[in-house]
Structure formats: structure tokens, C-alpha cells
Amino acid sequence: MATLTVVVDDELLRKAERLAAARKTTVPAMVERLLQVLSQPAPASEDLLPATQRAYGMLPSLSDDEVERVLDEERTKKYGGA
């Protein structure tokens, strides 16, 4: 197995560590999973159901802050307030 060194902002690392802890995993494991997902080829449009083909790419991307907010809300629902 190869080793990869990634330099990230301190605040981003803290967020990643909190997310990893909430998911009962590690930051390196999350990065590995992300790379696995990203390395998969996108599905061919003919492999998607017609409704999915029409909807594909229609949803706007979320900002990092929006993603964090949604994750915080879902964690609160699942684990309760802090």
C-alpha cells in the first residue's frame, strides 16, 4: 500500500476529524473512500433510468458551509444535541 501526504488547512482538518469521529472512521479512511468513489467511471446515461437522466446535474452543488450545516443537522437528529 502506498503512502500519500496531503497538506490541508488546519480548520479543514479539524472538520474532517470531527466528521470521521462521527462516522466512527479515520480521516485517511475517508480520503481513501473518496478516491475510490471518484475513480469510478460516471454511469453512461443509457444505464440510468429516464427520470434520473432528466434530473442528472440539475441539483446545485452545496458549498462546504452548507454541507457542514446539513451534516450537523443530521448528526443532531441521529445522536441528539450536544
Summarize this entry quickly.
The protein is built from four helices and no strands.
- Most strands sheet: none
- Output the radius of gyration: 16 Å
Q: Shape, please?
A: extended
Number of domain modules: 1
What is the N-to-C succession of helices and strands? HHHH
Strand content: under 5%
- Average of the residue pLDDT scores: 85
- Distance between the first and last residues' Cα: 38 Å
**Number of DSSP-assigned strands:** 0
Number of helices: 4
Note the quaternary state here.
Answer: single chain
Q: Output the structural class.
A: mainly alpha
Can you give the helix content as a percent range? 55-70%
Unreliable sequence segments: none
What does this structure look like?
This protein is mainly α. It has one domain (10-79). The chain has helices at residues 10-22, 27-39, 50-55, 64-79. The protein is built from four helices and no strands.
Write the layout of secondary structure elements.
Blueprint: H1 10-22, H2 27-39, H3 50-55, H4 64-79
Characteristic terms for this protein:
mainly alpha; extended; 82 residues
